[in-house]
Each structure stands twice: as C-alpha cells, then as structure tokens.
Amino acid sequence: MYLWKNSKVKKSSKLYSILKFKCPHCHEGNFFKSNNPYNFSSMSEHREKCSECGEKFSLEPGFYFGAMYVSYALGVAHMVSFVVAKWVLEIEMEFWNFIILVASSLILITPLYYALSKIVWANLFMNYKKKKDEKFIN
Ligand SMILES: [Zn+2]
Questions:
Q1: Which three-class secondary structure string do you get for 2-42?
Q2: What is the Å distance from ligand 1's center to 129 Cα?
Q3: 49: β partners
Q4: What whole-number distance in Å separates Cα of residue 34 and Cα of residue 43?
Q5: Ligand 1 centroid – CA 121 distance (Å)
Q6: Residue 2 has pLDDT above 60, yes or no
Q7: Do the Cβ atoms of 127 and 137 come closer than 8 Å?
Q8: How remote is the CA of residue 24 from the centroid of ligand 1, in Å?
Q9: Taking the CA of residue 72 as centre, how many other CA atoms within 13 Å lie in the half-sphere pointing to its CB?
C-alpha cells in the first residue's frame, strides 16, 4: 500500500521516499518488507538493505529507537488537529465522547504512523544519491 499512489512528487525529494515507502538512497527499492502498514505479520519491518542499490537501512544498532520522537510528534499533531477541527467547525460533543473518538481514531491509524515514523527517521539521516553511469555518487 502506497500513500498517494499516483502523486506527482518529485523523485529526488525526501517526500517521495516517505510517501512511497522507498529507499532513502535511491528511491527505487522498497524500504519495508510489506508496503502495507496494516499487514500485522510483518508490522512495518524494514529490510536489512536496499534490493536496488544495496545500501544498509540501519546505520547503527538501535537506530530506529529515535523514530519514537517522530511517532510522538505525529500523535500530538493528530490530537491537536482533532481539537482544532472541533473548535473551528463548532462541533458540540461531550468531553468523554470526544476523548473516545480521538483515542479510537489514533489507535486505528497507529500502524500507519509507526511505518511513517520509521521512514521519516531514516530520511532524516540518509540522503538521496543521484544515479549516474551505473554508480551512485553523492
Ligand atoms: Zn536503494
């Protein structure tokens, strides 16, 4: 499953790698073993290295622990967007019903945020390497 499968995002941009779950180095190979974050057997497990360029996806042991910062930011942005939407659209709702709505939507979207946090974290530290004459240069 790709996010925005037919998007017109430029290939060399980090957004391309993030939205299409592609290798941060070459934007060709798949980053995850399964591109569907709701495939619970692989649960957004990333590959050891890229099938196209051979670059490793983990820079050091425990590299993806830092992805929890991205996951936290996504969760907070999710909750804030619900509060802002409730305020702007002037939706009348009891407090605990609103909390249950936000919490249940967050639980449903957590697998997607988990995958996004890992690929965003990888893209923070890995850069696109332009392909030129069969070699990858920086
Ligand atoms: Zn690659």
A1: CCCCCCCCCCCCHHHHHHHCECCCCCCCECECCCCCCCCCC
A2: 9
A3: 56
A4: 8
A5: 16
A6: no
A7: no
A8: 7
A9: 5
Euclidean distance between CA atoms 73 and 67, whole angstroms: 10
How far is ligand 1, taken at its centre, from the CA of residue 98, in Å? 43
Which pLDDT does position 123 carry in this prediction? Answer: 95
CB 63 within 8 A of CB 27: no
| pLDDT (tens digit per residue) in 42-93 | 888 999 999 999 999 999 999 999 999 999 999 999 999 999 999 999 999 9
**Residue 33 buriedness (CB in 10 A; 0-12 / 13-18 / 19+):** middle
**Which residues on adjacent β-strands are paired with residue 56?**
49
Ligand 1 centroid to residue 57 C-alpha, Å: 9
User: DSSP letter at 1?
Assistant: -
Count the Cβ atoms, other than its own, within 10 Å of residue 39: 16
Q: Which residues face 46 on adjacent strands?
A: 32
What is the C-alpha separation between 58 and 30, in angstroms, rounded? 14
DSSP β-bridge partners for residue 22: 30
Type of residue numbered 73? A
